[in-house]
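INFO batch 0412 | record 1 of 1 | parsing
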Amino acid sequence: MESSSALIKRKVTLKGLDCANCALKIEDGVSKLDGISSCSVNYVNQSMTMEFDPSRESEIMASARKKVKALEPDIQFIGQIKPSAQKSSSQQHAGQNGGKADLHHDHGSGHSPHSHALAKGDVDHDHKHDHADDDGYGHSHDHGEQGVRTMVLRLIAGLAIGAAAMLLSLNTNVELLLFIASYLIVGGDIVLRAVKNIIRGQVFDEYFLMSIATIGAFVIGEYPEGVAVMLFYQVGELFQSIAVNRSRKSISSLLDLRPDYANLKVGDEIKRVSPEEVNIGDRIIVRPGERVPLDGIVVEGTSAMDTSALTGESVPREVAAGEDVLSGFINKNGVLTIEVAKTFGDSTVAKILDLVENASSKKADTEKFITKFARYYTPVVVIIALLLAVLPPLLFSGETFSDWVYRALVFLVISCPCALVVSIPLGFFGGIGAASKNGVLVKGSNYLEGLNDVKYVVFDKTGTLTKGSFKVNAIVTAGEWTQEDILLYAAYAEIHSTHPIAQSIREAYGLELDEHRISDYNEISGHGIQVTFENSSVLAGNAKLMQSEGIPFTEPKEIGTIVHLAINKRYAGYIVIADEVKEDSANAIRLLKKLGVKRVVMLTGDNKAVGEEIGRRLGVDEVHAELLPQHKVEELEKLDAAKSPKEKIIFVGDGINDTPVLARADIGVAMGGLGSDAAIEAADIVIMTDEPSKLSSAIQIAKKTRGIVWQNILFALLVKGLFLLLGAFGIATMWEAVIADVGVSLIAVLNAMRVLKLKPDLNV
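INFO prediction complete | emitting tokens
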């Protein structure tokens, strides 16, 4: 096994992969190749992600291509890697720092970026497609429109010939020939595939099960059932494939952020070009109804922007010259001229698409369990069927081989694990898509499943529960001065300061300041400012400044940062400046507690009085104030030591100065990640807006997703268990067996598709 610090990640497309069993087979085969640290195949978006040593890149990619071709010759392996000797310095840097490089291609799907920004130090490469191994198709689960028509015609022809054999009074040999012709038209490709797989040493799959069951039916003289089972199986496969493809399109439409073009301004001309062709500093025009193709700054025009595709917010956002806009926003009315700030590969849209599409490579424990279950389940079922066919006639007198062989064949038909291996990954992938539609990016189905076990939520204060912007909350006067006087004198005293508190005072004053009105400006370190304003001596600062100057002052009752003011050595009053609490912070904490969170903790570097006051107002269980980043990690570790192993801790921060704590928590959540590279890289989940209540939305979607996934598991196992018993006791026939198998798979897929429509309730 290679050292994790040296590994890079590569993603390739497996075109034509629409079979969950084939995906498991490829994942198992490729993961055993020498040099590959991990391999994850996602049949929902037809991709494979591998991790390996970058120095063996060309060799490992060639081995992976060869293995895929050997296992599934009809699947196209798309993606070619440059020779490892040409590795860029940035890629080497990523490897040295434990980063991972990722490869992503666009295959004309209309929703995948050509290139993208990569999480956790990933490095992007622009590689060309290699179509050298783009083979033609044999039987594939991927039924396009033409494939559907061909399959329907085959099924009708096979059904007609089979019906003729059943209904017409024919010679026995002619009848047999008609049944064989019907069988070959309907399922010849399945038998051929089973034979090819057996030659390659791949015995136990659904092709083998169906071939043995139906050929066995012919051997014991049950010709109509042999044809009917294959017919129903093919109908079921067709419907299942259509359902999977439809759900794939639904997921894609949730993430249909990718802009098709950009209107590039060149001199007085406007050219329609691909977003990838636009460079930083170029100007683009976005007309009403168009999607913003690249991140940038508005230089001309005003408009309302629909941000719902990125944030889940329904209220349009007003933008004007000088304001940032992100790719994926939709322009509602005005014409905007935008100066491009990032290339398409680094744009917000590219990052979001990449994160969601790659999320399936981090599998939930439920998915891993089903993968292992399916690997051992089919061989066990085949052995049980063999024993069922052979032992009763040998052990009990009066029992016939033909009767028990038939029961064993029924047993085989029912046993196919398709319902589980298809619907479970589909459910999690849909859950990730539903979360992204609600403005929450989940970087893996393991994190989505982990949200179900969250019992402790730790919030950073500034920028997470509060807005992170200081504002004048109160002005308290003393003597003859008015509030307007105090604000005027304080604004001029703070005229040259760059401190956020000074800025908040100037903003509250609101008028233009004329620096000619002041003189003798003197900043007193750690205390405040001394200045002369229009012949009046002004002191503005903290309590220490008042004490050092011997000026009696009023002790404030309010919580916040206090700026005391003295004019001509007489106390004039004070200004209270505080960080504003976000509108939905209190609701967010209330919702979390309703969803079963045991303790909500707030960590802050702010002073104790401020921290405790905000904690009290929001209903937080614990407040730890005056903390440095390393102290936040220590507080998190104390919680971790106290919780049970199954319980999980979430840390929610702004993703910029909280990287150590985000990494230490079971699930790190970055707040307000819209356009923030640091947030997207540091966290496992990214909330795209500044709303803490989105965390409860993510937990609700996770709980509903798990509910649907477990409905499918229990439903499939119960129905199959029941029919296996009925088949073993000779009650169920092959007709019922195949309808049960096909029906369970279809219902499970359709149930999994419900995940896409999940909507959180913000009034739980």
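INFO post-check: The two ends are 47 Å apart (CA to CA).
INFO record closed
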